[in-house]
Amino acid sequence: MRKGIETRERLLAIAEAAILAKGFGATSIEEVISEAEITKSGFFYHFKDKTELARALIHRYLEQDEVVLDGLFNRARELNDDPLHAFLIGLKLFAEMMTDLPEGHPGCLVATICYQERLFDRDIHDMTRSGVLAWRQRFLDVLREISEIYPPNDDVDLVEVADLVSTVVEGGIIMSKATREPEKLATQILLLRSYIKLLFSPVQSDRPLKLGH
User: Fold this and answer.
1) Angle CA(69)–CA(96)–CA(154) in degrees, nearest 5?
2) Digit-coded pLDDT (tens) for 43-74
3) Thinking of the domain 50-200, which architecture would CATH place it in?
4) 3-state DSSP call for residue 207?
5) Which of 103, 118, 196, 119 is nearest to 158 (CA)?
6) pTM (2 decimals)?
7) Number of helical H runs and strand E runs in the chain
């Protein structure tokens, strides 16, 4: 049983790396089988076709995302009870994690699927949409909690600010690959952190306080 789980996981890891490198359409079952060093029947024991492989990949990817984000932002909350400070710490931890990736972020499977949407069925599209909306809800909940204590210094839609997190991360991945600057993603996350800090930090008045009359 354990060997079967390990084989399935190896197939998923090989397929994900290939898809992130060159796309779903250019990745064949045969090359995954060859690299995994198993038989074709061994592959089809785990996945009946390429669509089922894609479904398993996106499910695995979204689950891993949740584990990573839970770990980072739960740790941040342990370090500081204040929601704003905890979120800023979490973003810094996130940036540091991206910096520690020697070759930079390998890419986003959700984005890859969106770019090649005609290759996938409705079920897979629904899975990717749910994943993106889960990110929105995660950060929207945090931003709403922050705004109850620290009203925003600008008239912003918190839903859009929550989506900004995804936009910055996905854009940072693309920029880091396009420029061959692996550190770009971490830099963008830190800029997002600065924006959040400016948006919610109490504004200090420059006027001196008048004491008495």
Assistant:
1) 70
2) 999 999 999 999 999 999 999 999 999 999 99
3) Orthogonal Bundle (1.10)
4) coil
5) 196
6) 0.86
7) 9, 0
